[in-house]
Structure formats: structure tokens, C-alpha cells
């Protein structure tokens, strides 16, 4: 019985130590969410206005630019998947990977070849374990991405769009990331970045073709040169915003997972404490029974000798 009590005590000690770790990780994630939310809020207006500016140039001129012109029969698409470098975030990375898998299946169903680009060790490990080809990958900055990181990711993607498909280029660019909706809700989303669809509703909810912000423009030196300058910034800003959204979502998912782990550890400690108390009470009862039995046997032996 004493051995069983020692087992319970060791388990309580181990779970208590784990609870302290998960509680600390929960608090760290909660503090990082605030910073990530501020970065998302700061970057979203820039990305939105830059999208409107690119749309204005594209609709205000008759220039045919490779980054805004729809290909009649696209044959290859690039998919950028944003996951996490770390685990302990529930289904955060797996949900994004599943969304990317669905998008890939849809694109292949349309007869397109798919080149996969990955941000985050979790996505790299997933594709590496299944021996799937990855065009390029980036790791080490998913918790706190910077604009320089977004620019590093955007460079090869823009180059792939500008190349001919015969030379390994792509006709479309898609991105899959986890959008931060609230502390409790983070949703994997799929967006097509390029070619920029001028008929789609803009991020502000307006139809670019009907918006009052799109009058006729005169472009210097030319509309094509303006698009050459704006579109890379557009891709970089959209990727940066997606990285920030994903970082905020990851921290929120980590906080939720660690809170659940902390609560479960607390429940387990209570359960183990009850079992330990029951084992200790049983041990005490057994000892009392042995003492009473021994005293009774001694009394019987003494009474027999006196006769």
C-alpha cells in the first residue's frame, strides 16, 4: 500500500511541474497576441490601399501587364502555405495544411500543375515525411515575422509569375494562411494573389470598376512602369499581412491549447490527490487493524498463560 501512495505522489509532483510549464506558456502566448494584433491592425490599411492603387492603375489604363492579365489556359499554379515553426498550438498547422491540400486537389482537378512553397517547419516536415516536392521553403520567423521576411518570401514567387511556364514559371499565385478573427476563432483561408482579378470585389467591399476612387489617370512615365513598381509591393504587403495574421492566429491557438492543458492538469492533480488520500486512509486503516489484532492476540496469550 505504501508503494502505491509513493506512485501517486510522484505523479502529482510530475503533473504539477507540467502545469507550471503550460501556465507559463499560456501567459507568454497571451502577451504575444496583443503585439501581433497591433501589427495586423497596422499592416492591413497599407495592404488594402496598395491593392486599391494597383487596381486603379490596372483599370485606368489599357496596359496588358503579365501580373494582371488572365491567362486563357493556365497550366501551372504556385501555392504558398503558411504554417508554424513550433507545435503546441492544437490543430493550427494541420488545419492550414488541410486547406492547402484541398486547394491543390482543386487546382489539379482543373488541369494545372502545382508548385508548393512553404513557410514554417511544420509544413516542411509534413511534406518532407511524405516525400513530396517543395519548390522552396522558409523557416525561423513565423512567431514574429518582419517585412524583410515577407520580402524574402515574395521574391521567388514574383519571379516565378514573371517567368514563362516553359522555364518553370507559373500562371497563378495562391496563398493559404490562418486568418485571425478573434481570440477564439482562427480560420484557414485561401486567396489568389495573382493575377489580380479586377472584377472581384476589393477588400473594402467595393467594386473597383464602380468605385469613385478610380477616375481616369495619366501615368508617368507609363502605366506599365507604374505596375512594375507597384505589383511587387502589392505581393509583399499581402504576404506580410498574411504572415502577421498567421502569427496572431498561432499565438491564440497556443494560448487556447495551453489553457486547456493547464485545466486538464489541474483536474488530473485533483483526481490523483483523491486517490492518494484514499490510499493513505487505507494504509492507516490497515495499520490500525494490525495494531488492534496484535493487541488482541497478546491479550489472549496473556490470559491463557495465567490459567
From the helix content, strand content and strand pairing, which structural class follows?
alpha/beta
Low-confidence stretches: 200-215
Enumerate the strands of the largest sheet in spatial order, edge to edge or round the barrel. 3-2-1-4-5
Spatial separation of the terminal alpha carbons: 40 Å
Largest sheet: 5 strands, mixed
Order of helices and strands: HEHEHEHEEH
Q: What keywords describe this structure?
A:
5-stranded mixed β-sheet; elongated; 307 residues; single chain; alpha/beta
Give the secondary structure arrangement, pairings included:
Elements: H1 2-59, E1 76-82, H2 92-109, E2 113-119, H3 121-129, E3 136-138, H4 147-162, E4 172-180, E5 186-194, H5 223-306
Parallel strand pairs: 1-2, 1-4, 2-3
Antiparallel strand pairs: 4-5
Amino acid at each position: 500500500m505504501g508503494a502505491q501512495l509513493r506512485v501517486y505522489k510522484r505523479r502529482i509532483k510530475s503533473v504539477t511541474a507540467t502545469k507550471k510549464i503550460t501556465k507559463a506558456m499560456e501567459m507568454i502566448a497571451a502577451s504575444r497576441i496583443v503585439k501581433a494584433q497591433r501589427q495586423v491592425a497596422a499592416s492591413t490599411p497599407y495592404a488594402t490601399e496598395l491593392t486599391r492603387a494597383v487596381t486603379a492603375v490596372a483599370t485606368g489604363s489599357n496596359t496588358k501587364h503579365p501580373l494582371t492579365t488572365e491567362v486563357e489556359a493556365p497550366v501551372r499554379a504556385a501555392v504558398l502555405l503558411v504554417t508554424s515553426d513550433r507545435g503546441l498550438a492544437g490543430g493550427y498547422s494541420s488545419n492550414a495544411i488541410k486547406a492547402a491540400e484541398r486547394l491543390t486537389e482543386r487546382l489539379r482537378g482543373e488541369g494545372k500543375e502545382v508548385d508548393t512553397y512553404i513557410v514554417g517547419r511544420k509544413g516542411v516536415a509534413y511534406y518532407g515525411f511524405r516525400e513530396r516536392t517543395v519548390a522552396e521553403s522558409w523557416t525561423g520567423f513565423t512567431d514574429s515575422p518582419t517585412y524583410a521576411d515577407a520580402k524574402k518570401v515574395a521574391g521567388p514567387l514574383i519571379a516565378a509569375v514573371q517567368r514563362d511556364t516553359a522555364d518553370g514559371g507559373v500562371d497563378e499565385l495562391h496563398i493559404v494562411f490562418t486568418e485571425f478573427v478573434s481570440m477564439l476563432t482562427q480560420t484557414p483561408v485561401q486567396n489568389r494573389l495573382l493575377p489580380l482579378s479586377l472584377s472581384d470585389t476589393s477588400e473594402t467591399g467595393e467594386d473597383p470598376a464602380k468605385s469613385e476612387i478610380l477616375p481616369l489617370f495619366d501615368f508617368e512615365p507609363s502605366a506599365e512602369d507604374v505596375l512594375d513598381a507597384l505589383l511587387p509591393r502589392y505581393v509583399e504587403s499581402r504576404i506580410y499581412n498574411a504572415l502577421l495574421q498567421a502569427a496572431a492566429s498561432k499565438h491564440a491557438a497556443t494560448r487556447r491549447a495551453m489553457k486547456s492543458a493547464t485545466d486538464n492538469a489541474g483536474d488530473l492533480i485533483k483526481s490523483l490527490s483523491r486517490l492518494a488520500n484514499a490510499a493513505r486512509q487505507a494504509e492507516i486503516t490497515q495499520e490500525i487493524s494490525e495494531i488492534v489484532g496484535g493487541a488482541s492476540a497478546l491479550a489472549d496469550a496473556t490470559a491463557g498463560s495465567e490459567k
